[in-house]
Amino acid sequence: MLYFEPNFVDEALVLLDRFGPDARVLAGGTRLRFALHPGDEAEKIALVNVKRISDMRGIQRAGAFLRVGALATAAALTADEQARTFAPLLVRAAESLGAVQLRNVATVGGNICSGDPASDLSAALLAYDARCEVASSQEQSRIVAIEQLLSKRAPILASGELLVAVEIPIGEHRCAYEKVMTRRAFEMALVAVAARCRLEGDTLNDVHIALAGAGETPLRAAGAEAWLRGRRLDEATATEAGRVAAVHDAKPVTDHRAGAEYRRHLVSVLTQRALLSMSSSPTSARSNL
Amino acid sequence: MMQPVNLMVNGTPYELLVHPSRSLLQVLRDDLHLTGTKEGCGTGYCGACTVLVEDAAVNACLYFAVDADHRHVRTIEAMRAPDGSPQALPAAFIECSGLQCGYCTPGMIMSAAALLASDPSPAEDDVRSALSGNICRCTGYQSIVASVMLAAARMAQHERQTQPEPSPRSRSRA
Amino acid sequence: MSAIIGTARTRADAAAKATGQAVYTADLAFERAASGVVLRSPHPFARIRAIDVARAQGMPGVVAVVFSGNTPRKPFDFSIKDQHLFPQEYVRYKGEPVAAVAAETEAQAHAAAAAIDVKYEALEPVMTIDDALRDGAQLVHPRWKAYEKSATRFMRGNVCGRNRIRRGDVEKAFERAHVVIDSSFELSHGIPGYVEPRSAAARKEPDGGLTVWCGSQSPYGNREELAEFFDLDVERVRFVNQFVGGAFGGKILMAVEWFVAALALNCERTVRMIWSRHEDGLHVFPRHGGRASFRTGAAQDGTLLGMRASFAFDTGAYLGYGSGTALIATMLASAPYRIPALDLEAKLVYTHKQVAGPVRAPGGPEATYCKELHIDEVARALSVDPLELRLKNAWVDGDESPTGQKLTSVSARETLQKSAAAIGWGEKLPPNRGRGLSCSWWFSSCGRSEAKVEVRSDGSVHVVSGNPEIGTGSAAGALPILVADHLGIDPSQVRLTLADTATRTYDGGVHGSTATFSAGQAVEAAALDVRRQLLASAEESLEARVDDIELSGGFARVRGFPDHAVAFANLAEAAGGTITGEGGAREIEDPEFDPELVQSHDFAAWMAPSFTTSAAEVDVDPQTGCVKVLKIVTAQDAGFAINPTGVVGQIEGGAVQGLGYGLTEELQFDESGIVNTGLKDYLLPTAVDAPAIEAIIVESPSSEGPHGMKGVGEPPVTTPAGAIGNAIRDAVGAVPHKTPMTPERVWRAINAI
Ligand SMILES: Cc1cc2nc3c(=O)[nH]c(=O)nc-3n(C[C@H](O)[C@H](O)[C@H](O)COP(=O)(O)OP(=O)(O)OC[C@H]3O[C@@H](n4cnc5c(N)ncnc54)[C@H](O)[C@@H]3O)c2cc1C
Ligand code: FES
Ligand code: FES
Questions:
Q1: Lowest mean pLDDT: which of A275-279, C40-44, C469-473, C491-495?
Q2: Comparing A140 with C259, which gets the higher pLDDT?
Q3: In terms of DSSP H, where are the helices of C231-363?
Q4: How many C-beta atoms surround the C-beta of residue C138 within 10 A?
Q5: Is the dihedral of CA C274, C279, C283, C287 positive or negative?
Q6: How confident is the model at residue C291 (pLDDT cuts 50, 70, 90)?
Q7: Residues A59 and A164 both lie in one domain
Q8: Is C264 helix (H, G, I), strand (E, B) or coil?
Q9: Chain centroid, CA A71 distance in Å
Q10: Phi then psi for C39, rounded to 5 degrees?
Q11: pLDDT tier at C509 (50, 70, 90 boundaries)?
Q12: Best C19, C242, C470 residue to mutate vs chain B (most B CBs within 10 Å)
C-alpha cells in the first residue's frame, strides 16, 4: 500500500490521476476503513490522505455563500458560529449524526462521497441547494449542484475527482430537521426530512424539502415543494404537502431496517412536522419523539 | 510502505513505523502494549476503543494511525494520578459501581473525560447524549451516569477549593 | 445480623477495571504466539464434496491446519449428540467452521485459510419454522435416527424435542369460562451482546497436557469436555480464566477454545485467536427465536380457569441449549398464577441458523413477554384492572406450581404491589402515555463448587474459588464479603484468585443464577474452616477459651481485652506458614413435584424460586410508532441480598437488556443466512434509550440458599419487555405481538396493518 499526504489540491489530483481506480481519498476514514478489505492491503492501493490541504478545510463566508471545506467535521460544524448562523439546518443534521466520537472525525466530504441514501448531512445540503466544488486534473475545478452529485448511487465522484468544498447560499430562512430511528440515538435515519423555507406572514416561499432514507439516494421532494409554493402554512397545508411528498416524491425501498410502506408513511409525517415546526420556531430538530 | 509516525501518548513521545492501513487502536494495543483501550466491535459501533486525540473523543478502531502523526493521544492509562491512584472519573466509577464486567469502562471514562473538559457541569441528559456512542451491556447506564455526575461535582468542588482566595478588597465590597 | 453482609460494597475488581489495568484474554502477551483463524462456510446449507488442505499446509508461515480429516470425529453436545467440531458431510449454517489454520502472522493465517479448497454443493436451506415444519420439508439432520440421544427424546421430522405440562381439563375450563382469549406471538432471535468478543489461547505442555487461556463462564466444565473430546488426561488440562468482558450466557458453551486447542495440539506453539465482532457474530449462540400461542379462559370475576400455551422454538442447526429453553418456557407460561387447568407445551425445531444457546435467562423474556401481554388481554376483555387480575390470581404460600411443587416464600404479590406503587399505578396520565406490568418467577440453582480460604504468614487473606468473574460481581462483589464477615476483616483486604483450574477448586461456573448461591456457600464454608483453625490456634497462644476469642482487624483478641491479641500472621507462622480452610457447596435436594403432570420434562422442580415484577411507563408517538421508555421499576425477590449494590446492578442491567429485547434487538436472517453479525444493525440500547430505573429489592428468604438468598442474575431480564408492551397498549390501545416492538411494528399495530 502506498501512502501520500499531498499539501495542495493540484498535488492530490496528480496522485488521483496517476493511480486511477487504485487511489483512495482518505478524509476522516470512518467509512474508508471498511472499504479497505484485507486483500486490498496489497501494494497497489494508494491512500491519499488529504488532511494537509488547507483549501479543503475551514468554514468561512465567501460572498453570498458559506463555504464549508470538504474536510470540515460534523463536530466542527456544530461548534462553528458562522455555520450556526448561516447554515443551522446543516448544524442540526450534523448534531444527529452518529455519536460524539464519530462527529469528531466524520467529514462533510466523506459523508457526501459515501453516497449513503440515509446520510444526514447530504439531506441538509440538498435542502440548501448547496453547490459543490469538484476538482479533477482534466477540469481544474467545477461547480456542481449537490442534487446532481447525489442523483446517482455511490461512487458519487468519478475516479480522479476530488470534492474540495460545499457552498451554501446565505439567506434568511427557517428550517427543521426531523429524523426517525429504531433506537433513540446513534443510528442512521430510517427516514429523515430536512426542510427550509422563508415565511412572509404565514405565506411559504422558497420551500426546500429533502428526504433521507426515502429512496436509493437522498431525494428532493420536488412535488411537495411545487405544491407548497405561495401557500399559507397551516395544518391542512402541511398535511397535504406530507401526502404529496410521500406519494409523489418518495421512492422508498424495503430493506432489513424498515419496509417501504412504513418509510413512505414516515415521509408524510415528518414532512408535515417539519413544516409545522417551521411555522412555530425558526430552527428545530427532533429525533424520534 | 511503512510510514513514520510521531505520536505523543499520555505525555510520552513515540517514533514509530506504521503500515498506513493500521488503526490507532492496533498501534496502541499491539505496538505500544497499552491494552487498557479495548476493542469491542472494530467498526465504530461500541465505543470501547474511545481515546482522546487532542482532547476530542474518537473511535481508535476507525482512526487511521497515520492521522495521529504529531498529535497528542490520551488513553485510560493516563487516568491515574502520579501516585497511581485513580483520578476523579475512575474514582467515581469505582465508588458508584459504574462498572460490572469493566470492558466498556475505559472507553466510557474517556468519553466522559472529553465531556467534562468541555462542559464541567452537565445535566444528566447531556451525559447520556455524550455517552450514546459507548455501549454498556452490563449496567443499564444508570450507575455510569451517576458516576459521571459525581465526578463532575467533585471536580467542580476541587476547582473551587484550589482557586485563589478572593482578594480582601473584593471581599469587603461584598 | 452482621455489619458486613448485606451492606452496599465496592467490588474487589473495580479499581483495576476503572484504570485499564484489568487483564482480559485479548490483553495477554505471549512470546511468539501463532495466530489462528477459522475458515467458515459461506452457505447456510451445503454438502461438502471435498476438502483439500494440502496447498494451505505449504503456505508461508503456516504451523498447523486442522479440519475434519485430522481431528476427532466424535459427535458432541447435550441430549442429542448432533454436532461435530468440524462438520463431516453437511454444513448447516452460514459461518459454520470447516477448518482452522495457525500461522506466524494473522495475515498468513488468513491467506492459508483462503487457500483451503472446499468443494461445496449448495443446497436449499430451511430458514424458518414454517419451512421446517412443512410436509416433506428438507430435514436438517436426515440421519438423526442414528444419533446418540437420551432415550426420552422426542424427534419427528425437523422437530427435535418436545415437553409438556398438563393438569386438569382445559377444554372443560374453557367451556365454563366467561371469556376465552386467544393470542399469538412471534419472537426474535437475540444475541447475548457482551462487549468483549471471544478470544483464547492454548499451548501444549511437555507433560502431554494443555493450557488454555480464555474468558469462560464455565472453565471447569469446559475443561472436562475438552479433555474428553481430545482424549487428554483432564488433570493435565488447565484452564486459566481471565477477566470476562460480559457473557450473559454466551460464554458457557465452548467456541473459540475448541479451535485454539485443536491447533495447539497439532503444533509446538502457543496459538491464539482473537475473534472480530463479525466472527463472534457468525459463531454466536443466540437467544431462541420462535412463536407462541396462548388461550386462556377466565370467569367473570377475573378468576383464571384454564390455559393452553404452545411454543415452537427455532433452535438452529444443532440442538444447543434448546432443551433448557423449552423446559423453562413451559414452567413460565402460566406462572405465577393459580390456574387449575393447564396444557403447556414447547417444541424445538431445527433450521439452518446459528445454534441457539443459553442467553441470560433462556426462555425467560420470551415466555414472559407472551404470557404477560396475554394476561393483560384477558384483563381487558373482562374490564378488570390488570394489577387486580394479577393480584387475584397470583400464587401465595402453599399454592402449587404447574408441576405440583408446593411453594413457600412466595412473594409474587409483594413484587406486584411494590412495583405498581412505584410507577404510580392508577394515576392519571397525559395522552399517549401508558403504564404496564409484567410478573414472573425464576429458579435458583446450586451446582458443585469448592473453595479455599488461606491466611498466609504475612497476615493476608486469600480466597481461591473456581468461580469466574464475568462482570456480575458474583465473585468480586460477593465472595470477599462472605469471607470478611467470618474473619472480622474488611472485604477490601481479601485477595481473590478465581477460576484457574490449577488451583483445583472445582466450580460449575456462572449460569442459571447459581454463582453466588453455590460459590458463596463453598467460600463461606472454607472461611468457617479457617476461622475454626484460627480460633483453635489462638486458644493456645492466648491461653483463653475459644468462646472468649473474637477475630477483628487481622487479630484474634480476647473479648474485653483488645490488647491481649495475636496477629493472623503469627498464627499462620505458627501453623507452618499458611492456614488453609476448605469448603464446598452442600448438595441441596430438589423440591418434590408431581411426575404425573409432566411429559419429557426434566426440569419440573424449581429450587428456591424467586418472583419479579417490572412496571414500565412509556410515551408513544402514535404517528411514527416511536416509543420512549420513561421509567422501569423492577421489584425483585432476592431472598436475601448479600451485596445489595450487586443486586441493584443486576436489576438495572437487566432492565435495559429487557428493553433491548422488547424494542430494538433483532438478529436477522435471510435465505443466505445470518444478516447482522455486527453492532451496526444489531441495535443494543444506548444510554439515551435507557430510562430511569428503580430497583426494589424484596427479601423473602428461601430455606435453601446461603443466608436465605435466591439467584438474582437472570430474573430482571425476564420481565421488562412484557411491561413495556403492556404500557404501549395502555398508551395507544394496540401493541405488536412480535419482538422487537420496533417503531414500524408499533405503527402497524396501531393501524392494524
Ligand atoms: C459508527 C458510525 C455511525 C455512523 N452514523 C451515521 C449517521 O448517523 N448519519 C450519517 O449520515 N452517517 C453516519 N455514518 C456514516 C458517516 O457518514 C461517514 O462515516 C462519514 O461521514 C464519512 O466521513 P469520513 O470523513 O470519515 O469519510 P472517509 O471514510 O474518509 O471517506 C468516505 C468515502 O468518501 C471518499 N471521500 C472522502 N472525502 C472525499 C473528498 N473530499 N473527495 C473525494 N472523495 C472523498 C473516500 O475515498 C471514501 O470512499 C456512520 C458511520 C459510522 C462508522
Ligand atoms: S471497537 Fe471501536 S467502536 Fe467498537
Ligand atoms: S460494564 Fe460490562 S459492558 Fe459495561
A1: C469-473
A2: C259
A3: 256-264, 277-282, 322-332
A4: 15
A5: positive
A6: very high
A7: yes
A8: helix
A9: 14
A10: -95, 130
A11: confident
A12: C19
Residue C225 sits in which domain range?
A: 32-123+196-245+251-282
What are residue A212's DSSP bridge partners? Answer: A192
The pLDDT assigned to A145 comes to: 97
Q: In terms of residue numbers, what domain contains B54?
A: 3-78
Residue of A nearest to B52 (CA): A101
Q: How far apart are CA A127 and CA A146, in angstroms?
A: 9
**B148 compared with A1, residue with greater pLDDT:** B148
C-alpha A276/C-alpha A234 separation (Å) is 7
Instruction: From the CA of A101, give the closest atom in ligand 1.
Output: 1
Integer Cα distance of C55 and B24 in angstroms: 34
The residues that bridge with C673 in the sheet, in sequence order, are C670
Whether chain A has a CB inside 8 Å of the CB on B26: the answer is no
Q: Which helix (H) or strand (E) holds B95?
A: helix B88-95
Q: How far is A77 from chain C (nearest CA, A)?
A: 23
Q: Complex ipTM, two decimals?
A: 0.96
Q: Are residues A116 and A180 in the same domain?
A: no
Q: Give the pLDDT of residue C192.
A: 98
Chain B CB contacts of C248 below 8 Å: 137
Overall average pLDDT of the C370-380 stretch: 98
Q: Are C241 and C470 in contact (CB under 8 A)?
A: no
pLDDT at C598 over 70: yes
Which grid cell is C274?
482473537
Of B3, B19, B111, nearest to A100 by CB-CB distance is: B111
Contact assessment for residue C479 and residue C643, using Cβ atoms and an 8 Å cutoff: no
Each residue's pLDDT tens digit, C203-223: 999 999 999 999 999 999 999
pLDDT band (50, 70, 90) for residue C512: low
Q: Which of C584, C619, C635 is the last residue of a domain?
A: C584
- Selecting from A34, A102, A185 the residue whose C-beta is nearest the C-beta of B59 gives A102
Find the closest chain B residue to C28 by CA distance.
B35
Contacts of A34 (CB under 8 A, 6+ apart): B43
Who has greater pLDDT, B171 or C512? C512
- Is residue A161 domain-shared with residue A256, that is, in the same domain? no
Residues C744 and C631 occupy one common structural domain: yes
> How is C635-667 classified by DSSP, letter by letter?
EEE-SS-SSHHHHHHHHHHHHHHHHHHHHT--B
Which chains have 3 or more CB–CB distances shorter than 8 Å to chain B? Answer: A, C
CB contact under 8 A, B66 and A3: yes
CB contact B139 to C (< 8 Å): yes
Q: Residue A41: its pLDDT value, please?
A: 58
Contacts of C146 (CB under 8 A, 6+ apart): none
Give the predicted TM-score (pTM) of the model.
Answer: 0.96
Chain A, 76 to 115: residues with Cβ < 8 Å from chain B are: 98-102, 104-105
Burial C212-238 (b: 16+ CB within 10 A, else e): bbbbbbbbbbbbebbbebbebeeeebb
The closest alpha carbon to A195, from A110, A282, A68, A259, belongs to A282
Grid coordinates belonging to C594: 408431581
Q: Are residues B60 and B96 in the same domain?
A: no
Chain A neighbours, 3+ Cβ pairs < 8 A: B, C
**pLDDT one-digit tens code per residue, C119-173:** 999 999 999 999 999 999 999 999 888 888 876 678 899 999 999 999 999 999 9
CB distance B128–C690 less than 8 Å? yes
- Rounded Cα gap, residues C227 and B62, in angstroms: 40
